[in-house]
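Dear Dr. H.,

I hope your travels went smoothly. While you were away I took the liberty of generating a structure for the chain from your last submission, since the lab meeting agenda had it listed for discussion. I wanted you to have the full record in hand beforehand rather than looking at slides cold. The sequence, exactly as received, is reproduced here:
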Amino acid sequence: MKNKNAKIGCGGIILLLIIGIIYLWNLLFWEGQRDLGNLSNSCNENYEINITHYSEFEHKQALQFYIIKNNKKIEKFGKTFAVTSRIDESLENFEIHCFDNILYVTWKNDNEPLIMFDLKNEHLYPENRENINYKNELFERIIKGNPKLEIE
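The corresponding predicted structure, in token form, is as follows:
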């Protein structure tokens, strides 16, 4: 009987040790959802763009962009995604610009808009990625303010 109790106790200790290692691994290497913060531009102080980083065990990690109006998320847009391969992503890696009442976000030192938001109509690209005409319309408006911009 003593030998059986020792085996059960030893098995319990091993199980707790495995659970502890998995928990510690998650604390150290898996961040999950991390709110990077809000970007705003002086052209319209009622709107901000919130960026959230989703870190997972994958090479490409999701970035979600939320449109915020008067400190509340505009729910009709849901989430707009971009991806990064950097685990240490921070708000300083992005820039927000405004031209012709369109807010757009780019990577710092990059010329490709990740999202474009028309403040007048409250329309967002790439919320509807199939709408190529709308993407081109927004892009044609903002390129007048920054001729270096590129879009795929």
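Two observations you may find useful: The beta strands are 32-40, 47-55, 61-69, 72-73, 80-84, 94-99, 102-107, 113-118, 123-125. The helical segments are 2-29, 132-142.

With kind regards,
E. W.
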